[in-house]
Amino acid sequence: MIKTNELKGIIAKNGLTQKQVAERIGIAPKTFYEKMKKGVFGSDEIQKMIEILNINNPCEIFLLKSNLKSYFNKKGGQTKCPERRTMISPTF
Asked: What distance in Å separates the CA atoms of residue 90 and residue 81, rounded to the nearest whole number?
């Protein structure tokens, strides 16, 4: 599961609503609310949110292997957590 409370805070800091974020990542608001409740988003949705919301510390919010598998693969098997300045190499 993702840290939904932190994600909600970032959405608010960006002056957006959850409905607006849902529309920008290409899903219905109802689906977005359900995913927030479960704390589970697809890797493509996560990538879009990182970009739309200018999330500098995605590892702090989306650090589950199941959510980030595709994200890590798109980044050549590694990604950097800017806040911690450490490299993360997933093992799947």
From this structure: 13
Q: What is the pLDDT of residue 8?
A: 96
What is the arithmetic mean of pLDDT over 20-33?
A: 97
Q: Is 32 exposed, middle or buried (0-12, 13-18, 19+ CB in 10 A)?
A: buried
Average pLDDT across the chain, whole number: 79
Round to whole Å and give the CA distance between 64 and 71: 11
The pTM score is: 0.69
Domains and CATH numbers, the chain: 4-88 (1.10.260.40)
Residue 77 is which amino acid? G
